[in-house]
Amino acid sequence: SSGINAEWPLRPGNTVALKPSVVQITGPLIRVLGERYVPNIKAACLDALSLLIDKVKIALKPFLSQLQTTFMKSLHDTNRDVRNKGVNALTKLVTFHNKVDNLFTDLHSGTKNTDLSIRETMLSALHGTMLHGGSNMSQSLAHSISTTLATNIGAPEDAIRIANGACIGSLASFFGEEELLKFINDNIISGGGNADAQIKHGRAMALAGLFKYSPDRICKLEILRSIVMSIAKLLDSDKVPVCNSACYAASHVIIHLLKRGDDPDDCMQHLLTCLVQNCSHGTSNDIRSFANNMVHMISISTPGVDPPLSDQNISKFLVPLLDSTTRKIPLVRSSSESAIATLLQLNHGDEIVERVKGLLDNKSLDTLYRFLPTARRVANDYRTYSSHEDDLFGKFSSKN
């Protein structure tokens, strides 16, 4: 926060030591946020209150109403950093807030704000609070929110459709099973092929949200095959945002099925085949580089699966990925380098290379041998495993 760090005195403190000082700390911070201070001071105070919630939680119950009002006010701030800090604080507050309907009602109303940046912030806050406290929401309010989210699938703004997809994923974590099934069938997977690009993009982001935030619940609905077929159709789109969002959704389905260790109805294999095709896309470098980044995401998101993909699937990916390393477009080349380094798990040695090299054609094998020194350097960079490009839900906290 531009050099101002109001939370540093709290970090060394343990919970027992802080509890007697909760009133002396919390009150002044709330008062500062109620005044016309510059954004970096407000952001620092919101950080401090978030850390205080982490440390003492229940001890802040007497301040619950004031904190809720303060955090909600911050969501309307003109400064994006202040709004984002408010979202983070509110998401933590809801974890010990039992009577949540008033909060969710306010957030729901905020998603209809005429200001695009405020509307996006409200959807972000709705996502985080529903994911961590939605189970305490009344079903009537959940139904009302679901109606708004269904409408937002076709919103004219990209940012709203992306945030809306995250909200649909968090709603699915607690929504009634019958209502959830109807919502998905009516709004996401049963739409006709004549829908415009905005709706298709909104559906792809909704599918991604479902599998990033509530994959176990979705698999229990026994509609996985229908979902995979819907994603496959969206992957055929000639619109880059639609195709890439569907690729993002497909990758989250693949990650979940890899972690689960099964592939019902060959659903994962079907999506892997689609992803290989996007890695070798002939007309769009954006689609090709995005698909490469999704291979990277899959590889670093499944550390407990060894190996994350079969040798046959790895070799199928290597052919287009190795071809991409020879391309002049920097985005295509760099994305393929990270994908290959993590796909082959080169940070653990050449075991997978030795297993799959016999499955490659001569041209790909020659490229692999020439490229291996570069791939090893990429594999030994810790940043390769800490993040990946094109995380469409990346603006939301990793805890969300």
Describe what you observe in this structure.
The protein is an all-alpha fold. It has helices at 15-18, 22-33, 39-56, 64-74, 80-93, 101-110, 116-133, 139-152, 158-171, 177-189, 197-213, 215-220, 224-235, 240-260, 267-279, 285-301, 311-324, 330-343, 351-356, 362-379, 383-386. The longest helix is centred in the middle third of the chain and has 21 residues, at 240-260.
Helix content: 55-70%
SS strand fraction:
under 5%
Helix tally?
Answer: 21
**What structural class should be given to the helix and strand makeup?**
mainly alpha
> Are there runs of 5+ residues with pLDDT below 50, and where?
none
The strand count comes to 0
Give the topology string: H per helix, E per strand.
HHHHHHHHHHHHHHHHHHHHH
| Terminal-residue CA separation | 22 Å
How would the blueprint of this fold be written?
Layout: H1 15-18, H2 22-33, H3 39-56, H4 64-74, H5 80-93, H6 101-110, H7 116-133, H8 139-152, H9 158-171, H10 177-189, H11 197-213, H12 215-220, H13 224-235, H14 240-260, H15 267-279, H16 285-301, H17 311-324, H18 330-343, H19 351-356, H20 362-379, H21 383-386
Helix pairs in contact: 2-3, 3-5, 4-5, 5-7, 6-7, 7-9, 8-9, 9-11, 11-14, 13-14, 13-15, 14-15, 14-16, 15-16, 15-17, 16-18, 17-18, 17-20, 18-20
Give a quick precis of the structure.
This protein has 400 residues and is an all-alpha fold. Helices cover 68% and strands 0% of the residues.
Write out key terms for the chains shown.
single chain, 400 residues, mainly alpha
